[in-house]
Amino acid sequence: xxxxxxxxxxxxxxxxxxxxxxxxxxxxxxxxxxxxxxxxxxxxxxxxxxxxxxxxxxxxxxxxxxxxxxxxxxxxxxxxxxxxxxxxxxxxxxxxxxxxxxxxxxxxxxxxxxxxxxxxxxxxxxxxxxxxxxxxxxxxxxxxxxxxxxxxxxxxxx
Length: 158
Fold this sequence. Notes:
The chain is mainly beta. Helix content is 15%, strand content 52%. The protein is built from two helices and nine strands, in the order αββαβββββββ.
């Protein structure tokens, strides 16, 4: 009887140890991100970070309301509204890919936006990919620059 009790206790201990080491994906805040589930309109809420980590910018503090639009065909558009006037300020492409996060050192999902930047003169533009680590995607999109002293941005699904 004592032998069976010890065997049962040993089996229960092994079972507990083997299941306690499994990673649960039920609590992961961000499901797999694709061009389809990021699609839609996103309003900029705030940006926080910088050298001190405390620099905070909002539409009310900057006077600019920004809207990002992601389309299922991988088209990205940015609209900025200043003093009631809305302008299309960027029209380009985006993709979802894997990147090594500086925060965790592990591969994670990242948003790549192919920005147009000036190459010395206003008439010469080149594509400069900007990569953001995707921290959360749901009713809010939270992204972070993938470099030291970068910023984190929050957008709300419209």
